[in-house]
Write a structure and sequence with these properties.
Largest sheet: 5 strands, antiparallel
Number of strands: 5
Number of helices: 5
Radius of gyration: 15 Å
CATH topology: TATA-Binding Protein
CATH architecture: 2-Layer Sandwich
CATH class: Alpha Beta
Helix content: 40-55%
Shape: globular
Distance between the termini: 25 Å
CATH superfamily: TT1751-like domain
Structural class: alpha+beta
């Protein structure tokens, strides 16, 4: 499942504010990928501006990786940002699917759901 929301904030505003908004909910931006620019330099241009942000909540990552190293394939968390139908779209991988794919105890799942709620708060921080 992919979790997707839209905001009327313009794409440039969301891009410019991503790092500050992430910090407000306990995440840091590790890296971003401007796919339009990357693919253009490789000779495969696309029309749509798509940026993917890798974000990390260090305490949550430490706990997750200590208890379940295989979950590293899902880390860091990613948020995709692009414009669609005149609105800015933000998407991420649904944690429910990720947690459903591994055998972990309920306490771990509950903690990861709280982290996912913070990630969704980040995405919704541009709501009007």
């Amino acid at each position: 499942m992919i979790y997707t929301i839209q905001t009327t904030k313009d794409l440039g505003t969301v891009r410019n504010e991503m790092e500050d908004h992430a910090k407000e909910v306990g995440f840091g931006v590790l890296h971003s990928y401007d796919f339009k620019q990357i693919l253009h330099t490789k000779g495969f241009p696309i029309e749509k501006d798509i940026t993917v942000y890798e974000v990390c909540n260090p305490p949550a990552a430490q706990q997750a990786l200590s208890q379940l190293p295989i979950i590293s394939v899902y880390l860091p968390c990613r948020i995709s940002v692009f414009e669609e139908n005149g609105k800015t779209t933000l998407s991420t991988i649904g944690f429910e699917d990720m947690l459903g794919s591994v055998d972990v105890d309920e306490d771990f799942k509950s903690h990861m759901v709280l982290v996912y709620e913070d990630l969704k708060r980040l995405m919704h921080s541009w709501d009007n």
